[in-house]
Structure formats: structure tokens, C-alpha cells
Amino acid sequence: MNPSQTSPRQRLDITDSSRKRTPSPRSRTRVLEAETRSHLGRELLGVCAHALPQFGVKVSPALRKIPPVRAALYARRLLADADSATKLHTHWQSHADYLEDDGRPRVIPIQGPTPSFEALCKEYGLTQQSERLLALSCQFGLCTRSGANRLAYVSDVLLMTGHPTLMLARAAVTMERFLRTCVYNAKPGRPLSESLGDRTAEVDLSEEEFGGLSRATRRYLSSFIESTDRLLLAGVARDKRRGRAAKARRRCGVTAFVFHD
Predict the structure, then answer these.
(1) Rounded mean pLDDT of the chain?
(2) Residue 56, SS3?
(3) Does position 146 have pLDDT exceeding 70, yes or no?
(4) Phi, psi of 68, deg, nearest 5
(5) How many other C-beta atoms lie within 10 A of the C-beta of residue 172?
(6) How far apart are CA 191 and CA 198, in angstroms?
(7) Pairs from 190-196 (Cβ < 8 Å, separation ≥ 24)
(8) Which residues pair with 41 in a beta bridge?
(9) d(CA 95, CA 216)
(10) Could you state, in order of their start, the residue ranges of all structural domains in the chain?
């Protein structure tokens, strides 16, 4: 149809339909976010579906439809990618090749030699994950697109707080580890000394009391977790120096919880 033969209303409809075929970056981010959360939700339910029969639970027909998941691999990969993305952006804002004369991070191309996002990924051995890391970096606001093929730096800090997708990934990994520990402790016929201790006290606190408890314990819990993780990493380093494979289970680390109902 010749555009000159169409009415203004028809031309408007044609323009509107063409716009719908090219979603905005913000719209693509929302779609990606929804897909990611859906995948994480299925994985979280799958972790529960895998653990329940090991407690002798007769699973309902509805729950049997959920594919069991032994390990929350998708969630672990997302969290690992988030950590990798922050390292790339720390490099971006702290190395001379990626800075303007006044010290501000440059707007860099996605592909090409240094400075570029492709070169950043290559620097850290993350070339195969570059497309995934680029999408995640834009999704969580570490950088923004500047034109078709360039990126502008925003931040190298990514907090899970305030990000439902990252918190859901953390929930899936935490639930997997918690249920695996409970399944291990539930097995009969072993000495109690082999079990991982689990003592829980439930106390009702006001908002003010909870805030006070958090402030009082946060530093000690953080120090305990960090020091224990350092010991685990030191054990891995000793194994490498002695020329033997590191123990696979050493990467478990320590997690402490304060629940806010």
C-alpha cells in the first residue's frame, strides 16, 4: 500500500504496530527479570520436591508434577555472575585505561580491544560468559547502554537488598543447603557427634528491639563468618601447595541467620 493513499489514522496504526515490534531496553529488562524469577521459582520448588521424600513424606500428586532439583545450579550461577560483574566494574572504575583524564570512568564500546567490555571479560577469563554478564550488568544497574554499542559506567556495588531477583536466588541456594543439612541430620543410626548441630530459640521482639539486636550482633556475626571462611580457604591453599586436590566440600563456608518475621 502506498503511504500517500492511507488515511492519517491508518498511518498512525502502522507506526504504532512498528513500535510494538521493537521493545525498549527497559521493556526487555522487565521481560528478562520475569523469566529469571520464574526459573528461580521453579528451582526453589524443585529443591523442596527433592528433599521431602527423603524425610519419608508421601508427596501429593500436585507436588509430584514439580521436577525435583538436587542442587540450585541456576541460582548459584546467577549469584556467581553477579559477583563477576562487580569485579569487572571495579576494574573499569579503577584502571587508567578505562578512565578519562579527570578520573571519571570512560564510556566504552561493548566489543573491541582495551578499553571495552569484551576486553574486561577477557582480562578475568570470562569471555564465554560475556553476553550473560553484559545483560546482567544492565539488568541490575551496574552500567547502562549509551547508544547502540557503547556502555556507561554506573556503579561497581551490587547489594542483594532491594533486588527481589537476587534475593530469590539467595533463597533457593540457602534452602538447598538448609534442607540438605536437615536430611543429613535426620538419618538414623549415626552417633550424635556426626550431626551438624541445630539449636533454635524463638523470641518475639519489637521493631526497636530487633534493630538493637541487629546492630549489636552484625559485626560479630560478620567477623565469625569471615574468619571461618578464611580458614576454609587456607585449607584449600594448603592442599594446593602439597600437590593434592582440594577437598570438594571445603567451599561450603558458614552462614548465620537472624530471621525477621
Answers:
(1) 79
(2) coil
(3) yes
(4) -65, 145
(5) 29
(6) 15
(7) none
(8) none
(9) 37
(10) 25-153, 204-261
Q: Residue 62: enclosing H or E segment and its boundaries? A: helix 61-64
Highest mean pLDDT among 19-33, 115-129, 147-161, 225-239: 115-129
Q: Looking at residue 107, what is its pLDDT? A: 95
Angle between helices 130-139 and 73-92 (to 10 degrees): 80
Say how far apart CA 36 and CA 40 lie, in whole Å. Answer: 6
- Residue corresponding to grid cell 508421601: 58
Q: Which three cell numbers stand for residue 156?
A: 561497581
Query: What pLDDT band is residue 250 in, cutting at 50, 70 and 90?
Result: very low
**Residue 52 DSSP code:** G
**Residue 109, phi then psi, degrees to nearest 5:** -75, 155
Q: Is the pLDDT of residue 173 over 80?
A: yes
Q: What angle, 0 to 180 degrees and rounded to 10, lies between the N-to-C axes of helices 130-139 and 25-51?
A: 110
Residue reference for cell 594448603: 238
Return d(Cα 83, Cα 178) in angstroms, integer.
22
Q: Alpha-carbon distance 173 to 82, whole Å?
A: 14
Bridge-based pairing state of the strands 150-153 and 143-145: antiparallel
Between 209 and 227, residue with greater pLDDT:
209
Rounded-to-integer distance, Cα 83 and Cα 156, Å = 10
Q: Above pLDDT 70, what percent of the chain?
A: 69
- Which 3 state secondary structure label does DSSP give 36? helix
Q: How far apart are CA 104 and CA 113, in angstroms?
A: 20
Q: How far apart are CA 166 and CA 142, in angstroms?
A: 14
